[in-house]
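Why does residue order matter? Because the sequence determines the fold. Keep that principle in mind as you read this record.
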Amino acid sequence: MADVTLFDLDILDCKDVDYSEESVMYNAVTFHLESLKMFDGNSVEISEDWQIKIWSEDGQQILKQFFLIENQEFKRKLYQAYPL
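Structure:
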């Protein structure tokens, strides 16, 4: 099982974690979603509403920001696991 999962779907693994009141920062991540593999090694901030911010290696810039359900690969896996 991955370090971060949602609905039993593996999202990512990480080397270490930092907590704040608003979100959790996962550092040196490895994504389980192929569509996000290009960001392996970066830090990823996830808020309680599953908004994801992928940070640059120096932590100064957000490279990508989205809600997990907006990721087509995650959405496809979710609907395969839990058909409507």
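Helices lie at 72-81.
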